[in-house]
Amino acid sequence: MFGPGSLTWRVNGEAVLLLGGGRALILQVAHPKVAAGVAEFSNYREDPWGRLYRTLEVTLTIVFGDPEASQAAAEGLRRAHRRVAGRDDQAEAYRALEPELLLWVHATLIDTSLTIYERYVAALTPRERSLYYEEMKTLGEAYSIPRDAMPADYTAFRRYWASMLAGGLRVTGTTREVTRAVLRPGLPRVAWPATEAIRLVTVGTLPGPLRDELRLDWGPGRERVLAASQLAIRRLLPALPALFRRFPQARGGLLRAA
């Protein structure tokens, strides 16, 4: 679908993007209709990180797989979404395949990928961001989003994103439940340092108004710790071999292309 020279392979192949998984999920369920689908048809509340990794597996196959594998993964995703329909907490009907809902979920992945990549890997130029967004429109079509339903360019995408944060979202009980499950997944004590690191990134990179509405503690001290962690990882990544830095699917795609 893309290839070795694409911004998508460059950005989405970085394993550090895993740090943004919780952020993307919380943003997704801040949309009440997405939250309703999650509450009724998914186990995100009970196993948010396991579900995130399974979803990531599908996405990486679509992006980095050969044409047959990519098409099969995209079709499997569409089949899974066809059965997801119902009513939200205010009795408004929803269908997972509605372009509006698919677009919001896709937008959270785009914004999160760019946020984490630029904080932990490298800055992108305005032209690179625009090219990345153009490629993401192709990926959106694989998710069943009509091209004309997506913002026309990166500037329009930023306007769409700002408008959704300003008035298109609503925190529900499901939003709060999923947030608790993401930030406190009930892992063994040995995993607490990693859990705390992910919690720091998740809370620190959420948009401020949403973070405040969810009553997530944040302040200058935590901001400084987050900035220090970003600097440390950004310095470390170039020294890591691809085996540790890149997703297996990304490495496989490059080998196949070679």
Query: What would you call the shape?
Result: globular
In DSSP terms (H or I, runs of 4 or more residues), the helix count works out at: 14
SSE run: HHHHHEEHHHHHHHHH
How is the largest sheet built, in terms of strand order?
Answer: 1-2
In total, the number of domains comes to 1
**Quantity of strands, as a count:** 2
Percent helix, as a range, is 55-70%
Strand content: under 5%
Most strands sheet? 2 strands, antiparallel
The class by helix and strand makeup works out as: mainly alpha
Average pLDDT figure: 92
Topology at a glance:
Blueprint lengths: L6 H6 L8 H9 L2 H10 L6 H17 L2 H16 L2 E3 L5 E3 L3 H22 L5 H17 L11 H15 L4 H11 L8 H14 L2 H6 L6 H17 L5 H4 L2 H10 L1
Antiparallel strand pairs: 1-2
Describe this structure in words.
- By secondary structure, the chain is mainly alpha-helical.
- The protein has one domain (7-242).
- It has 14 helices and two strands; from the N terminus they run H-H-H-H-H-E-E-H-H-H-H-H-H-H-H-H.
- Strands 1-2 form a two-stranded antiparallel ribbon.
- The model has no long low-confidence stretch (mean pLDDT 92).
Please provide a brief summary of the model.
The protein is mainly α and 258 residues long. Helices cover 67% and strands 2% of the residues. It has one domain.
